[in-house]
Design brief:
single chain; 469 residues; alpha/beta; Carbamate kinase; VC0802-like; eight-stranded mixed sheet; six-stranded antiparallel sheet; 14 helices; 21% strand; globular; binds adenosine-5'-diphosphate; binds aspartyl phosphate; transferase; lysine biosynthesis
């Protein structure tokens, strides 16, 4: 057996049905057969997390019939996958799936009886997606002749704080994961861990935020001092733009942890924004690879940026469904206590501010937030700020960002960005540049964001068409 240890993460697309799961298992088995130790981390089957959220909402609203119909449909999907993967009706896999669905049904019924959906019960319900897909992956690995054992995030040692819906690992988690998984690995058994979830010190199930299976994989990677963490995707890796929007988007060979964090934060759906944080101290590389083209190197994410001459910008991304909250009050906003109370009120609501800008006359502050957070932000400002301020909301906004370490100290980058936007007749609502100079972001009307993305992508020569020449 070699010293190499890989953590392999499979997202919803790579777990969506029996065929995808079998293929994912084949990719892991290939490495195991080479003597590499592998920890597999799985997401829910594509669409299941959203379905579970809808089930929870329906139960809270009193529509138990709809919740039960959805649970039945989900159950059929898991049983069909198990059957297609070769599980007999009396097998352990089928029994486990049946028990889990029964517990899920009871939890949902509890929400219905109480008509109350706390963040804690929502996490319990939503984590079933990952709990249900782990036995399927274990089965697929066994069918390929591998020994495997599935564990929930908590069983694998992931302990978190109590921020249900957006939990963070506690420092003790790393030692605990090592204790829980080393024995299995030493015995030649591949652990299959349910991603996205952990548990509090008291054993309540938590989730790590949407897209959190990437985060689970890197937490485990750090704990085990993995050689690399691999995120299997349905794209070649991190691309210069969302390939669904920009047809000639190109794969990026190397990115730094900082660059990939900015990209994820500014909407590149390819990775959880905090996923690389556990890797930063140790410098463990993260590789994003295409499951349809496993021999392609994909994108390597590492500590050091690799600047490409003549390419200060590496990618353009967008966050959709954004609202701008304009806070105004001539003369009032210049008072430091008033500004402090604005940010205090927002912090108490735990709202993520995507962009902030203050006019130099200090009579206006603009805040960009996700539209789902807008009402909470408005209410918090109205309740939490004592002085007379006007607060208004502008919807249908998107934030577009360009990212790349090469723009540090480089002149003319914003000029090129603004020229590309002007060429598309796009009006800029807000502008911000991070002090790290890894990104420049602008808020624009949502209707223009796709055209703006394509125009900016072309202006920085990011596409295949240009780079090939
Ligand atoms: N800059 C980008 N690079 C790569 N993929 C991107 C980018 N922006 C958005 N995406 C989208 O992210 C998707 C992959 O992420 P995700 O849906 O989380 O996969 P999974 O859930 O299967 O892991 C791709 O299908 C792609 O459409
Ligand atoms: N299933 C969770 C966690 C996750 O990471 O999923 P995916 O790997 O499919 O993005 C979600 O949808 O948020």
């Amino acid at each position: 057996m070699s010293d190499t240890l890989l953590v392999m993460k499979y997202g919803g697309t790579n777990m969506q049905d029996a065929r995808a799961i079998r293929h994912s298992a084949t990719l892991a088995a290939r490495s195991i057969q080479e003597g590499i130790r592998v920890v597999v981390v799985v997401s829910a089957m594509a669409g299941v997390t959203n379905q579970l959220l809808q089930i929870a909402d329906a139960a809270q609203a009193g529509d138990i019939a709809r919740a039960n119909d959805e649970i039945a449909a989900m159950r059929t999907r898991h049983f069909t996958a198990a059957q297609e993967l070769g599980a007999a009706p009396d097998s352990d896999t089928v029994r486990e799936l049946r028990e889990m669905h029964e517990t899920l049904r009871q939890a949902v019924y509890g929400v219905y009886l109480l008509r109350e959906l706390t963040p804690r019960s929502r996490d319990l319900i939503v984590a079933f997606g990952e709990r249900l897909s782990a036995p399927l992956m274990k089965l697929a690995l066994e069918q390929l002749g591998q020994r495997a054992h599935h564990l929930t995030g908590g069983e694998a040692g992931i302990v978190t704080d109590t921020h249900f819906g957006n939990a963070r690992p506690l420092p003790g988690t790393y030692g605990r994961i090592k204790d829980r998984l080393s024995g299995l690995l030493g015995a030649g058994v591949t652990p299959v861990v349910s991603g996205f979830m952990g548990e509090t010190e008291k054993g309540a199930i938590t989730t790590l935020g949407r897209g959190g299976t990437d985060f689970s994989a890197t937490i485990i990677g750090k704990a085990l001092s993995a050689t690399e963490v691999w995120g299997w995707k349905d794209v070649d890796g991190v691309m210069s733009a969302d390939p669904r929007v920009v047809k000639d988007a190109r794969n990026i060979d190397v990115l730094s942890y900082g660059e990939v964090m900015e990209l994820a934060y500014f909407g590149a759906k390819v990775l959880h924004p905090l996923a690389v944080t556990p890797l930063q101290d140790s410098g463990i590389p993260l590789r994003l690879k295409n499951s349809s083209d496993p021999d392609f190197a994909g994108t390597l994410v590492q500590a050091e940026p690799r600047d490409e001459a003549g390419h200060p910008v590496k990618a353009v991304t967008a966050i959709r469904n954004v609202s701008i909250i304009n806070v105004s009050g001539a003369g009032v906003l210049g008072i430091p206590e008033v500004i402090a109370s604005v940010f205090d009120a927002i912090a108490r609501e735990n709202v993520t501010l995507l962009m902030v800008s203050q006019s130099s006359s200090m009579s206006n502050v603009s805040l960009a937030v996700q539209t789902v957070d807008a009402e909470r932000t408005l209410n918090a400002l109205r309740a939490g700020v004592s002085l007379e301020l006007q607060v208004e909301q502008q919807d249908n906004v998107a934030v577009l960002a360009i990212v790349g370490s090469g723009m540090r100290g480089q002149k003319g980058v914003s000029a090129r960005l603004f020229t590309a936007l002007a060429a598309q007749d796009v009006n800029i609502l807000m502008i911000s540049q991070g002090s790290s100079e890894l990104n420049i972001s602008v808020a624009v009307e949502a209707a223009h964001v796709d055209d703006a993305t394509r125009s900016v992508h072309a202006a920085f020569s990011l596409g295949t068409a240009v780079s090939a020449g």
